[in-house]
Structure formats: structure tokens, C-alpha cells
Design goal:
The chain is of the alpha+beta class and about 850 residues long. The protein contains 18 helices and 47 strands. It has an 8-stranded mixed beta sheet with strand order 26-25-33-29-34-31-32-30, covered by helices on one side. Strands 37-38-39-41-40 form a 5-stranded antiparallel beta sheet, with helices on both faces.
Length: about 850
């Protein structure tokens, strides 16, 4: 009987133990004397966070105990806390235990890897709970023994409710530390921390050196972080800054409970600080709210001492403060020594991120005049500012560091002390410049009056041009029955090459060759472009030598040439057996002559002689874009060096240039044009790497505001860049070009070709691969590996999302080029949800047989 009772109790004990273990792996709480092993988790009540073991390389030998978002794969940015980030464990031999005395211990077999070192005060009253906030809390009765939110050594991903700062009482610092790399969460090179100085400032440090400074707290946000304040409402997250004798810390908090959004901040491996948000209650995706540094001006002291960094469309530039002059690369120094006097004047610099406050002195709240007088009374002070919030008046000695202007109204006014000679110079400038402007205005008015008088004597020249119809190429019909008059104002009515009479003019209409010659002659007659004779072109190209050949395609061959005056030209010669006949040639000649934009290739002239059709274009020193973006994946080392020339800034400038060129074609030009064959080989790069859209042979003129053009029975284009509706049904619109643009952007970012990507990447094309990475929160992995860190993550992610919007299957879901340019030029993004690209434009030739097609299989 006793033996039976003993076995019964043993069975009950084992059953209770395994039930407890099971509950530990499915609930949010773990009690004393229980443990977690690999495969078991704690899950918060709302199933937002999980605690358990994970591996970053699918290896049991390199495992970690941590907390991550349930719906995201554990990785950088999704893991919010790691117990053993410095010391991985073999997860098959590891266990996480809450001991009977209230201590949390991570074991690898018998070795203690990590411990909280806590001890409970009562018996069986200690429990561990994973909260919906992501905080892991060890409770003992009514007190908190330990919590992950205050684990100062391991803030990897920052969540609302965490502190970032320091505690003066315990000498504890709460800081955010980057990972070493994407597969190693041990502490990396970057730390996000508030430095303990007279005026605390939030910094990102790179190996203890200042890398980025957020600026002072002004009561609403960080001065150098204006977009943080601007987007608080959108993210339903508020920011506070606590400064007292005991603590100094920065904290984000949800404004409502339950919160309509989720928020997390990540210090990335490359040093960028990002905030992401997700709207709850739906199947949305995490979106980037902001990221810093945003540009070179955000890099600490980018312009050197006493120099202001300003962002412009073309990049950033540095400018000395008033009264200072440039010195080498170290910034600026005073033009004249500062003679400290109570009569010194101050120069006002507006909308500034105020200088580094390491040596600054807080003076308390006071008026602007009182702050000025205080600065004047101290011979060591060179600048002052009055900051709203806790600090009030601040004065600076010595050199001023880390200055930049803020273009969205988030800065402060900074007043810089001037030497007496600088004040006199400013007064002189204030008098002379208005006088010069007045004189210039007077000259302009006089010039306009003279011009109007002479212009009355000008004649009007009427030329008959073919009527251009909606949807037509410039010359798709040989028999033109309608015409319209174009009135040309000419100062002296002089015409060039007027030896062709009206009879010959009409006779030229009879053949396509004659019509092309007529176009060339008309352009020349209007004085827009010269007409070259064939002999000049042959001399310039060494009689069309193969050594001068730049490239060839369905249209013919392009040669490099050099005119007698030394000017280099590109000579586009139509082949007599070309797949693109006279219509395409005439179309390109007519369109380029009428379209003038910085990002379109410029037409220099034409030549129609001896049955030759030749267009002369500006020469592009760097040839086409495809030679650069795919070079990193070429076999030849010399090709790979080309790819490395395209750093992130250059890639972004190319993307913006192409977008502006397309916007001009679609909306801003006198003709609304659909290109229809946009691809990297048709994007040329000049000596400054400015992109120029070329090859308008199959472009269409489109009038009206209809969303979709009628079908064509002859889809023309290049596989990999053709929109689904155009490839499958022959329907084209402005959104067809938008699709092609999106593909090009993804190729520029990745350095890989869409058409061939699926051959080595699990049958996903580049579009589908980019979408998959976006959904998994790993978008940066698509970036070409020759793009060196650090890079502005927010710009890259903005471009990726914009590109994915452009390649949506349904043309109605794609943005217009106006919206694309807006997204590239600002932080504002369309809220259109991304859909997975399901239709690929990389079919083989046999996939499309319902229509007559003219498809380029490889980029030319």
C-alpha cells in the first residue's frame, strides 16, 4: 500500500511539473522553480511580444535569450532585449530559470551565462511576467526586483516607456547600443546616449567620438530633430525630457491606451537612429517615421568650427558665420580679432541648431535683451541664445561647433558677437547693395522699353507643319491632309537654307525620306538647330569607324565624333535594314527638337543625305547608366570599379534626375509624352553624372487627362521594364513609364538586373524579392554592397517604398510622377498600401503570342 501511494505521488509530481512547464511556454508568466528551454516561450497577453531562445543564423550553437515581436523574425530592430548579447549559448543545452530565491539565471548546462543577481524577500511570491509593453518584469509581492526596460547594458531596440539618460544617485546610464553586425548582437561601434555635461545633450557616439547630436530639448522636442515634433501626432507618441538633481532622461510614451499605433526605435549597425510605427487593428506594415542622420549636415561638426552647414537640393554646403573667413578644412576663424567691449554688436543667425553645449553655460530664464547684456558683460562669451523650455538663456565661449540651419522651422535664433570692423563692414554693405540693386532695376526697365520698340518692327513668319494627333507618333502617317499654322516671331526674319522653294517643300512630303529631310530643314530654317552635311559627319567619326562605335541596337549604330572646333558629339545613324524605320527616326527627331530639359538628351542637329538618316546629339562622357549599376556583378575587375563610383548620393541624384525628366515629359512640356522604352541603357550620364533620358523613337504624344490610352496592336519595349497592362494587353499610359521607372530605381539600389535576377534567386524577380524583404523588415539587404556605410537609411527606405509603389500590378495603384518627385523631395509619403507584385514582365518570348510584338530581349 505504501509503495502504491509513493508511485502515485511521484506520478502526480511529474504531471504537475510538466503542466507547469507547458504553461510557462504558453502564458505570459513564469513562477519560481520553473525554466524555459529552446522551443518554449512566454507570450504577452495581447500576443505582441515573445520571450524565448532564438538564433540569427539558424544555428543551435549560436543562440540567444531575448524578447521580440511575435509577428516579426528575430533580427536587428525587431529584437527588443537580449540577456546574453555578449555571450551566445548552444540553445540545445541552455535553460532560463527563475530560482526559488528569486534570481533569474541563464544556464548553458552548469555554466551561468547571465543573471540578474536578485533575491526575493518572501516565499513563493516571486514571478516573472512579460508585459504587453515589451517589458519583462520580475515582481516580488508588490515590488519590482528587476525589469528589462532598465537593463542599462542592453537597450538594443528602444520602446515607449524606456528611459534614455542617467541616474545620478546610482551612477547608472541608460544607453542604446548598436549591434556589431546583422548576425552578431554583441555591442557594436555606435552608442545613443545623453552625455552628462552642464547642459545635457543627446548624442550618437562612434567609438566614443561624437557622430550625431540631436540638439537641446526646447520643451516640445529636440532642436536638431524637428521632424520628431512634426510627426508626434501621426504616431500617437509623445516625447518628454526629465532634468532634475536625481535623473536626466529622455522618454517616449503612448498618448492613449490602448494605443492606435505601435512604435519602436532602432540604433542600426551603421549608426542611424530610426523610429518605426505600425497602425494596430489591421494587416498593416511597419513604416519608417524618421531616421537620423538624414544628411551630411547631421554628421557632427561636418563643416568645422564657426561654420554653418546648410542643406540644398544639390547636397550640402558650408558657410562661415558673419565676421569669419574660411581656413582650410577646419572651418572658419574670425576675420579680425574680437575686441571685447560692451558696445559690441551681434549678428543674428536664424533657424539654427544651436552649437554643441559642452562648454556652454545655462543662465536661466530671462528676456532676450537681458541675455544679450549678460553676454556683453562677460569677455569670454562669443554667442548667446534664448531657448524655450528649462534652459532659457545660454552663452557660449570660444569656437562654435556643430552648426547647421534647419529648413522646416524647428531651429532657434543664435546671436554671434562681432568685432567692431565687421560691424562697420555690415553697415557699408547695407548701404551699397540697395544702391546697386536700384541701378540694376533701372537698367532692366530701360532695356525692356528699347526691346518693345524694336520688336514692333519684327515680322511674323507662317510655316505649315503637320498636325499631331492624340496617340500618334510624330510622323506615323505618310499622307498628311491636315495642317496648322505656327506663328514665329523673328527680329529680322532671316532664314537659313531657304533655297528650297514651296514646290520642293510640298514634293518632299511624298516620301518618308523626304519628310524626314523636311523636318531637319524646317528645324534648321527656324534657327533652332544646324543641319550638317554628310562629309562633316564622316570626318568627325573617321568615316564611321568601328573604333568610334559607342553602341548599337534595333535603330542602328551610335558613334562618337569630334567636330573641327573640338566639340565631341554622339552620332546616331539609322541602319537601312533597321527594325525601327523612318517613322521612329522622324518621331525622335521631332520630339527631341521640341523638348528641352536638363534631364533629357540634347539634340545638336541632323543630317539627311544620300539616303542616310543621322541625328547628332550631345556627347555623354559616362555613356549609359547600365554600365555603372550592373558593374559590381560583372566578372571584370575594371567594370567593378565603375559601380563603386556610384555612392549613395550619386545614386539618389540619378534617381531624382530621371524622375524630373519624366515629370517634364508627362506634365510640364509643351507636348505630353509617354516614353514607352525607359531602361538604364536609355539613361545617359554626362561628365558630372547628370542623367539624361534618351531614345524617343517609340515615344507617343498623349493629350487629355484620361488614365489609360487605347490598346495598340504592336507593343514595343524591353522585357523587364514593360508594365503588365502594356505587355499583356497592349494598353499604355503615363503609368506605364512609372512602372519602368520603379524597376530602374530598384536596379539602381541593388546593382542587379531585373530580367536575370530570378535565375539565381529562388525564381523571384527583383520586384518580388524587394517586396519580400520589405514585408520582413529587411529592406536594406537589397542595397548594392559597394555602397559604403554610413548611409542615410531614411532616404534609402523612402526610395525602396516609392519604387515598390511604382511597380504595382494595377496601374491605378501607381503614383504619378508628380507624386514620385514629391516623395523624393520631402519626408511626406503616400499612404497607399503596398501590394505584392504578382505579374512579372520578365517572360520569355513565347509567353506573349496574342499580339504583334516588337520586344528588345536585352538592354541596348
Amino acid at each position: 500500500m505504501k509503495l502504491f501511494l509513493f508511485h502515485f505521488l511521484e506520478i502526480v509530481a511529474v504531471t504537475v511539473f510538466f503542466l507547469a512547464q507547458s504553461s510557462a511556454s504558453s502564458g505570459d508568466t513564469m513562477i519560481q522553480n520553473l525554466s524555459l528551454v529552446n522551443g518554449q516561450t512566454l507570450t504577452s497577453t495581447g500576443e505582441l511580444f515573445q520571450l524565448g531562445f532564438f538564433s540569427l543564423d539558424n544555428s543551435l550553437a549560436m543562440g540567444y535569450l531575448g524578447i521580440w515581436y511575435c509577428d516579426l523574425t528575430p533580427q536587428e530592430g525587431t529584437v527588443v532585449w537580449i540577456a546574453n548579447r555578449n555571450n551566445s549559448v548552444n540553445t540545445s543545452m541552455a535553460s532560463f530559470n527563475l530560482t526559488s530565491d528569486g534570481n533569474l539565471i541563464l544556464f548553458e548546462e552548469d555554466r551561468i551565462v547571465w543573471s540578474t543577481g536578485t533575491r526575493s524577500t518572501g516565499l513563493n511570491s516571486t514571478h516573472l511576467q512579460l508585459l504587453e509593453s515589451g517589458n519583462l518584469v520580475l515582481n516580488d509581492s508588490n515590488s519590482i526586483l528587476w525589469q528589462s526596460f532598465e537593463d542599462s547594458n542592453d537597450i538594443g531596440t528602444y520602446l515607449p516607456g524606456m528611459k534614455l539618460g542617467f541616474d545620478n544617485r546610482t551612477n547608472t546610464s541608460w544607453q542604446q547600443v548598436s549591434w556589431k553586425n546583422l548576425t552578431d548582437p554583441s555591442p557594436g561601434d555606435y552608442i545613443h546616449v545623453i552625455l552628462a555635461q552642464p547642459i545635457p545633450d543627446l548624442f550618437t557616439l562612434h567609438r566614443s567620438a561624437k557622430y550625431y547630436r540631436s540638439g537641446l530639448w526646447n520643451g516640445n522636442g529636440l532642436i536638431g530633430h524637428p521632424s520628431m515634433v512634426r510627426r508626434q501626432v501621426a504616431s500617437s507618441v509623445s516625447f518628454t525630457f526629465v532634468l532634475n538633481q536625481n535623473e536626466t532622461y529622455y522618454m517616449a510614451n503612448y498618448t492613449t491606451s490602448p494605443t492606435p499605433v505601435l512604435s519602436r526605435s532602432v540604433l542600426c549597425v551603421n549608426g542611424t537612429f530610426q523610429r518605426w510605427f505600425l497602425e494596430t487593428g489591421g494587416k498593416g506594415e511597419w513604416q519608417l517615421l524618421w531616421s537620423f542622420p538624414e544628411d551630411d549636415c547631421d554628421i557632427y561638426n561636418h563643416c568645422g568650427r564657426n561654420s554653418v552647414c546648410t542643406k540644398s537640393y544639390d547636397g550640402v554646403y558650408c558657410q562661415c558665420l558673419d565676421g569669419f573667413v574660411k581656413i582650410a578644412e577646419n572651418g572658419c576663424q574670425r576675420e579680425k580679432p574680437l575686441n571685447y567691449s560692451s558696445n559690441n554688436q551681434f549678428s543674428k543667425a536664424q533657424n539654427m541648431k544651436v552649437p554643441d553645449t559642452e562648454n556652454a553655460t545655462p543662465r536661466g530664464k530671462m528676456s532676450l535683451d537681458d541675455c544679450k547684456n549678460l553676454c556683453l558683460s562677460d569677455s569670454s562669451r562669443v554667442a548667446y541664445a534664448v531657448i524655450s523650455g528649462s534652459y532659457g538663456c545660454i552663452t557660449w565661449p570660444g569656437d562654435l561647433l556643430d552648426l547647421r540651419t534647419l529648413d522646416d522651422g524647428g531651429g532657434e535664433d543664435l546671436y554671434i558677437r562681432l568685432a567692431e570692423s565687421s560691424t562697420k563692414k555690415q553697415a557699408w554693405v547695407a548701404i551699397v547693395i540697395p544702391l546697386l540693386l536700384g541701378f540694376f532695376l533701372l537698367c532692366c526697365v530701360g532695356g525692356v522699353l528699347v526691346w518693345r520698340k524694336r520688336n514692333r518692327a519684327s515680322t511674323r513668319l507662317l510655316l505649315q507643319l503637320p498636325n499631331i494627333k492624340e496617340g500618334d507618333s510624330m510622323s506615323t502617317r505618310d499622307d498628311v491632309s491636315e495642317s496648322r499654322s505656327i506663328a514665329i516671331d523673328s527680329e529680322d526674319s532671316r532664314l537659313h537654307n531657304t533655297d528650297k522653294g514651296v514646290g520642293e517643300f510640298l514634293l518632299f512630303f511624298l516620301t518618308a525620306h523626304a519628310y524626314t529631310a523636311l523636318l531637319c530643314s524646317m528645324i534648321n530654317t527656324l534657327g533652332l538647330l544646324p543641319s550638317y552635311d554628310l562629309g562633316t559627319i564622316k570626318t568627325a567619326t573617321n568615316n564611321f569607324s568601328d573604333r568610334n562605335k559607342l553602341g548599337e541596337g534595333g535603330f542602328g549604330v551610335v558613334y562618337m565624333g569630334q567636330l573641327e572646333d573640338g566639340q565631341k558629339i554622339a552620332v546616331k545613324k539609322l541602319s537601312r535594314n533597321s527594325s525601327q524605320g523612318p517613322n521612329e527616326f522622324q518621331n525622335e527627331l521631332s520630339l527631341i527638337a521640341k523638348l528641352q530639359h536638363r534631364n533629357l538628351v540634347r539634340l545638336l542637329g541632323c543630317c539627311i543625305e544620300d539616303m542616310e538618316r543621322i541625328i547628332i546629339l550631345e556627347y555623354m562622357e559616362n555613356k549609359s547608366l547600365d554600365a555603372f549599376i550592373y558593374a559590381n556583378h560583372m566578372k571584370m575587375t575594371q567594370d567593378k570599379t565603375k559601380s563603386s563610383l556610384l555612392n549613395w548620393q550619386k545614386r539618389l541624384e540619378v534617381i531624382i534626375g530621371i524622375a524630373r525628366g519624366l515629370l517634364y515629359l508627362h506634365q510640364d512640356s509643351i507636348l505630353r509624352v509617354i516614353h514607352r522604352d525607359l531602361k538604364p541603357s536609355n539613361i545617359l550620364l554626362d561628365k558630372d553624372m547628370i542623367p539624361k533620358i534618351s531614345d524617343f523613337g517609340i515615344a507617343r504624344i498623349f493629350e487629355g487627362d484620361r488614365a489609360l490610352e487605347d490598346e495598340t496592336n504592336r507593343p514595343i519595349g524591353t522585357f523587364g521594364y514593360m508594365a503588365p497592362e502594356y505587355l499583356l494587353y497592349g494598353q499604355f499610359s503615363f503609368k506605364s513609364d512609372v512602372f519602368s521607372f520603379g524597376v530602374i530605381v530598384l536596379e539602381i539600389l541593388s546593382g542587379k538586373r531585373n530580367r536575370t535576377f530570378g535565375q539565381t534567386n529562388s525564381n523571384l524577380n527583383l520586384l518580388q524579392h524587394a517586396y519580400k524583404l520589405w514585408k520582413e523588415g529587411r529592406s536594406l539587404e537589397i542595397l548594392d554592397d559597394v555602397v559604403n556605410c554610413p548611409y542615410p537609411t531614411i532616404e534609402i527606405l523612402r526610395c525602396i517604398r516609392m519604387a515598390l509603389l511604382c511597380v504595382q500590378d494595377n496601374y491605378e495603384d501607381r503614383p504619378t510622377m508628380t507624386e514620385v518627385v514629391m516623395m523624393l523631395a520631402s519626408d511626406e509619403q503616400l499612404l497607399t498600401p503596398l501590394k505584392q507584385p504578382t505579374i512579372t514582365s520578365t517572360y520569355s518570348e513565347g509567353d506573349c503570342s496574342t499580339k504583334e510584338m516588337s520586344i528588345t530581349i536585352t538592354g541596348r
